[in-house]
Amino acid sequence: MYFKKLPVLKNEPVNEEYFILGIRDKKIVENIKPGQFFQVKDSKAVFPLLPRPLSVYKVEDDRLEFLIKKVGESTNNLSLLEEGHIVQLLGPLGNGFPLVQDKKVLIASGGIGYAPMPFLEQKLKEAGNEVWFYHGGRSSNDVFCEDVQNCTEDGSCGHTGFVTEHIEKCFDSTDIDVVYACGPEPMLKVLVSLCSSRNIPVYVSLERVMACGVGACCGCVIKIKENGSFVYKKVCKDGPVFDGAKVVWDE
Questions:
Q1: DSSP letter at 35?
Q2: Could you give all domains of the chain from N- to C-terminal order, each with its CATH number?
Q3: Where are the beta strands (DSSP E) in 33-148?
Q4: Of 17, 93, 114, 180, which has the fewest beta carbons less than 10 angstroms from its beta carbon?
Q5: Secondary structure (3-state) at 123
């Protein structure tokens, strides 16, 4: 884990809702695992006080990128930063996705839950896995790549309907060994149910509002079924990736 202040390498809009923020640092990218995140903040900003947790989107050579959705003051401010502006980073944080080898793997994402998945897909393919990738969004604004099975609720891009509907059809026609997912919790809950009924292991990356990012403040706890009882885990430190079958979704 590193705490660094680094210049913005690029700040590129995807559309009116999303943008890509890039930085360069050889040391900080050496041991990043898919599913980990960084706490990121404009180093010159006094308010908002807290940094934002951002999933690792892409890693290439000495470059690190974040795919970010503008949802509040912090992310809107980050979208306006120019190249060379200094940002504050803490990370990599959390536990990433456990990787398998030589399996049939399905990746599922929804909305900004797409952010950690391209890096995961890269590592899974490097490990010899065959990968099916399904992504869902409300509209074409929530679609980021044409090389996946895109699903939109309004039918403006790709398949029409919820991404889980089309994943269920994939399950009916393909023997998937393991599923990796990130997205809105209603989507993850349905997906875990589909996987459980077919005895398919599923790992989910959860989104929570985080303050410290290192497990000190306990502001991001979730309820987990473990060894016949219920325990509370910290998303930032124990996750953000969990065994989906152990998550208590209705709390």
A1: T
A2: 2-93 (2.40.30.10), 104-208 (3.40.50.80)
A3: 37-42, 52-55, 58-60, 63-69, 86-93, 104-110, 130-137
A4: 17
A5: helix
